[in-house]
Amino acid sequence: MKKLILATAIAASFVTTVARAEDAKPDNEFSFNAAVVSDYRYRGLTQTRFDPALQVGADYTHNPTGLYAGTWLTNIKWIKDAGALSGTDTKGNVEWDIYGGKRGDIGGGFTYDVGGLYYYYPGNTLANSGVKNANTFELYGQVGYGPGYFKYSQSLTNLFGAVNSKYSQYYDLGANIETFYGIMLGLHVGHQNVRGNPSQVSYTDWKVGLSKTFDDLAGITLGVAYVGTDLKDGVATTPASDGLKNVGKNGVVFSLSKTF
Predict the structure, then answer these.
(1) What letter would DSSP give residue 108?
(2) Of 17, 34, 78, 247, which is least surrounded by CB within 10 A?
(3) What are phi and psi of 9, to 5 degrees?
(4) Would you tell me how many other CB atoms lie within 10 Å of the CB of residue 203?
(5) pTM to 2 decimal places
(6) Could you write out the DSSP letters of every residue in 155-205?
(7) Of 222, 142, 225, which Cα lies nearest the Cα of 186?
């Protein structure tokens, strides 16, 4: 009996050690991601004139400190559309994001995430009343608790080429809730305040989405979301050649993505 108890204890200790080893993360962690979306929406607004987008990215995390850095790229159309609406020929069909920050636990179940994000549009020629281009830099801070979070972002440059819009603010409240069969429910509401511009340019956006990762399909994640804003027709539109569509109109977005 004593030998049986001893053997059981040793086996249990071995299993626990293996489990802990499997759960432990490396000090330096790299990951890559790729996605195809039916429409690239950012803060509720289409960036691709309601057309699909191909997106790729890479991330690095130093787990002991919570420091991280990453980059992400996607195709866009909004810069060319902005030029067409103003009667000018503008260039810029790629968005390249570069970001870095620090995340971790505050205590009591709360988490934090602070950092900076630079939106770079290679070769863009968006120019409006002295604004050189659409490139934008924001600082952000986020507090999370359980599945919920609140994030605040502030631009230290003009916001995506808007005149005199330095220090514009974005408020983001949301939650990612695991429901049944591994399906995630994503809820979001945000408000973009565009400083120095007419009040109708500022707006509220929202999203309700469902997603599921399929391990038997090489870890591919499928998603669908209903996205919209309170922007009125005519405030922000696509070019006349495309029928002057409201870029913030309500719509459904499908996505297929993978992290590896």
Answers:
(1) T
(2) 17
(3) -65, -40
(4) 21
(5) 0.88
(6) ESS-STT-TT-TT-EEEEEEEEEE-STTPEEEEEEEEEE-TTS-GGG-EEE
(7) 225
Q: Kindly tell me if the per-residue pLDDT of 113 is higher than 90.
A: yes
What pLDDT does residue 238 have? 82
Q: Do 228 and 251 touch, CB atoms closer than 8 A?
A: yes
Q: Give the three-state DSSP class for 9.
A: helix
Q: Are 230 and 203 in contact (CB under 8 A)?
A: yes
**Beta strand segments in the chain, E:** 28-37, 41-42, 45-46, 53-62, 67-75, 94-107, 110-120, 136-145, 148-155, 169-178, 184-193, 203-214, 220-229, 251-259
Neighbour-count burial of 129, counting CB atoms closer than 10 A to its CB (0-12 exposed, 13-18 middle, 19+ buried): exposed
Burial of 85 (C-beta count, 10 Å sphere; 0-12/13-18/19+): middle
**What is the residue-averaged pLDDT of the chain?**
88
The confidence score (pLDDT) of residue 17 equals 47
Amino acid, single-letter form, for residue 170:
Y
**Strands 94-107, 41-42: pairing kind:** unpaired
Question: What average pLDDT does this structure show over 88-103?
Answer: 92
Distance CA 46, CA 49 (A): 6
